[in-house]
Amino acid sequence: MADSHLIPTYKRQPIAFERGEGAWLYDSQGNRYLDALAGIAVNALGHSHPALVAAITDQASRLLHTSNLYEIDVQTALADRLCAYSGMEAVFFGNSGSEANEAAIKLARLHGHARDIDAPRIVVMENAFHGRTLAALAATGNVNAQKGFEPMPEGFIRVPYGDLAAVEALDDTRIAAVLVEPIQGEGGVRVPPADFLAGLRTLCSDRDWLLMIDEVQTGVGRTGHWFAHQATGITPDVMCLAKGLGGGVPIGAALVAGPARTLFGPGSHGSTFGGNPLACRAALAVLDTIENDKLLAHAQAMGESIRTQIEARVGELDIVTDIRGAGLMIGIELAEPCAALVDTAREHGVLLNVTATNVIRLLPPLIIGPAEVERLVDVVCQLIETMPIPATQT
Ligand SMILES: *Cc1c(COP(=O)(O)O)cnc(C)c1O
């Protein structure tokens, strides 16, 4: 691969897949792998789901793309559905998570300017991940990812994740919004204190800041709710979606409500591909399937089963420092760096991910079944049990 014409922006594992079915991927030799990563929370319905295949096939035979210069019925229908599930009021469609967050950042600035703030600021979190485009990268709390790309777009104020008092203590009059993940994904499947989002909601309402929730990874059933913040009973002003929404077809969305509802008008934002018929039809099939097959409750149950079984089997080991998450977004934090587990797991026929150095991250498709859960738990626990015992802390 060394002389490939691909720009080497990714450290790739030495494997390619030929086809997939349900929670399984098959390589060219016919070996099968249990997919506990789902394309990083993208393949919500697993691989080759018949409902998604049928929807895409039918749509492709009618219309792939027209233009946002025209009405697009499936886009309108998808916006209706997303608003019905979320209580949000309107949707802008893009093609990725970064783009959804770019829209949110632009909305925050419009909101600031509407309040006569010349240089509006957005409060963001340590260890946040919001994407790789420049403004999303500036919002991302990772100096390594930013390195070399300076100057970063300005206007971000960073506080520790989960620290409501730190946000409350900010007295910068230029603040226009808070951008936050309900559970940090890339940052290590970090779950904030129970009152964090509700506290931010109150604070944002009191101070006329937009509460902007990045549900790119947590949204569309991943945590056993349509959107993770719904577990806390609040409604944000802006919500960003992407990853699982199209079940593998690229689509992103920024949803608005309340004070964010009227900020964008004709000509203020746009995307050539955003919300095209193919992507919207795929997303509608994903939403239909989650609803018809009761996948929210299923994701809750399967996630609970994975977490309790792992807890019971390896929770007491010194190497395991925490098991956390919601629904099928699960993090197992170890006392040692564990990036090598990705290769070992693959050699045992399981695809998983390690993030934030020492957190095993499981993001299986929402359709994973009980027998596959048993297999996943078994392999993950075996890997953890055979990790070297950590050196005693002094
Ligand atoms: C993956 C991710 C993004 C970026 O999405 P892209 O589609 O890669 O641009 C943004 N926010 C969160 C929380 C993510 O997990």
UniProtKB/TrEMBL annotation:
Q: How is the cofactor bound?
A: Binds 1 pyridoxal phosphate per subunit.
Q: Which InterPro entries match?
A: AcOrn/SuccOrn_fam, Aminotrans_3, Aminotrans_3_PPA_site, Class-III_PLP-dep_AT, PyrdxlP-dep_Trfase, PyrdxlP-dep_Trfase_major, PyrdxlP-dep_Trfase_small
Cofactor(s) the protein requires to work = pyridoxal 5'-phosphate
Q: Name one GO molecular function term.
A: N2-acetyl-L-ornithine:2-oxoglutarate 5-aminotransferase activity
Q: Where in the cell is it found?
A: Cytoplasm
Question: One Pfam family name from the record?
Answer: Aminotran_3
UniProt KW keywords: Amino-acid biosynthesis, Aminotransferase, Arginine biosynthesis, Cytoplasm, Pyridoxal phosphate, Transferase
The protein's assembly and partners: Homodimer.
Family, as annotated: Belongs to the class-III pyridoxal-phosphate-dependent aminotransferase family. ArgD subfamily.
Protein name stated in the entry: Acetylornithine aminotransferase
Please give the organism. Answer: Salinisphaera aquimarina
Q: Which gene encodes it?
A: argD
